[in-house]
Amino acid sequence: MKTALITGATSGIGKATAELLAKQNYRLIICGRNVEVLNQMKTDLSANTEIFTLNFDIREFSQVEKAIHSLPENWKKIDVLVNNAGNAHGMDSLENGNIDDWDAMLDGNVKGILYISKLFIPRMKSEKSGHIVNISSTAARQTYANGVVYCASKKAVDVISEGMRLELTEFGIKVTNLQPGLTETDFSKVRFKGDEERAKMVYQGFQALKPTDIADAISYCVNAPKHVCISDLTIYPSAQAESRTVYKNAGL
To answer: N or C end of the chain: which has fewer CB within 10 A?
Structure first.
């Protein structure tokens, strides 16, 4: 039985991925900051597989290191690492940007991937196996005004994924970089700091992607034959042409 560790597992894409992989008989280490949700997920998913929960903030290396080192020996071999945790805060121009928002995005979207991957790569190399899936965004493909720092953080994920592939392929480790387009999660609610009405407007007038759509893609990638590696995968809803262009009410 393979073991998968998923960061940001308590909502959205991470939660949908955990639910799907549990049905596919993966043992799961689900990570997040919401202890109550983690415990409920453990209860729900334990009907299908073994579940281990870790509560930490991906932005703090000391917390990441302590959590990972706390894993029992029989949970320390990870076959699949899904680096899903991330965030978007605010839509301000650079001159009006909030420094705390910038730190949250760069620490969560960039450093978080580096922190947790650093701790698992050595064992993957020694085992000569493993699969790292990094969740980027179509925002990495086209920068948009008032989202420059978020776009930059996701562009960094692309670069990190490419670098991982260059460093790890010879050791039998697969690396997948996945770029979702507009996906209806709590993403916009967080970005707009709890303004639910503004968040809803982002997804009105067209059919956005669902977290389960991205979970399906992740499942396809990690369950592909050993000789197949999906290196980069971009997924748009059918109404979206690129990061900045969505055709609402177009009958798509």
So the answer is: N
pLDDT of residue 250: 67
Query: Is the CB of residue 250 less than 8 Å from the CB of residue 206?
Result: yes
Domain boundaries of the chain, sorted by first residue: 3-246
Is 247 known to be catalytic? Answer: no
Element (H, E) at 14: helix 12-23
Q: Please tell me the predicted confidence (pLDDT) of residue 197.
A: 87
Which of 60, 34, 65 has its CA nearest to residue 186?
34
- 3-246 maps to which CATH number? 3.40.50.720
Residue 163's pLDDT is: 98
Q: Which of 26, 115, 144, 150 is catalytic?
A: 150
pLDDT tier at 191, thresholds 50, 70, 90: confident
Mean pLDDT of 51-67: 97
CA distance 170 to 88: 34
Q: Are 161 and 136 in contact (CB under 8 A)?
A: yes
Q: SS3 for 55? A: strand
| Rounded CA separation 181/208 (Å) | 8
End-to-end CA distance of the chain: 41
Q: Pull the structure tokens for residue 87.
A: 């965030």
Burial class (CB in 10 A: 0-12, 13-18, 19+), 248: exposed
Which DSSP symbol is given to 241? E
Does pTM top 0.85 for this prediction? yes
